[in-house]
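The following record pairs a protein chain with its ligand, glutathione.
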Amino acid sequence: MKLYYATGTCSLSPHIVALEAGIPLDVERVDISRKPHVIGNGHDFTKVNPNGYVPVLELDDGSLLAEGAAIVQYLADLKPESRLAPAAGTRDRYQLQSWLNYIATELHKMYSPWLFHPEYGAQAQEVARGKIGERLAYVESHLQGSGPYLMGNTFTAADAYLFTIVGWSAYAKVDLSAFPQLRAYMDRVGARPMVREAMVAEGMKRAA
Ligand SMILES: N[C@@H](CCC(=O)N[C@@H](CS)C(=O)NCC(=O)O)C(=O)O
């Protein structure tokens, strides 16, 4: 299996999930700073994903799966014993999907593209930061009552995704100072050996 990724982007989330699940993974870096985006051999990445974005998972039969929220569930279901996703059809599985959708639509797509492109203007960016602040306040209160992870005591695919997106905060100038639970959560998740390993593999961190 191969994960198409770009360093430090949302593709870090399935990278973490694969490592946490103990799934052997080939990785192929996509240069999303070039237009069109290219992969290592210089090939146009839109031949892999016509939408041009990471993550994409190439399965062993050559078929492709796009969209981070789907990829992390696919990986987690390959190793149910990892408990990265509750069993399909259970109430808890829908709760996981609720979190994945919340992170994708209310956070991920509010940070990106709005806070990564100054050309959108300061006003649009302040609106995005305000919305993100509201959504993070909700996460903060949830962690306070039901932590240490989003789904309670068990680290799941939703935590890999939330950690990845909230990890953009310093760069995107999203102020986390009002969210002590969330900051502690980021430290907790960031200290997990497989999370560190994924970050080292992507060149975001030095090996200890
Ligand atoms: N809907 C997609 C969005 C993925 C996405 O936004 N990927 C970004 C990196 S975080 C990307 O590759 N951007 C490059 C581009 O869109 O050209 C998902 O949730 O997987």
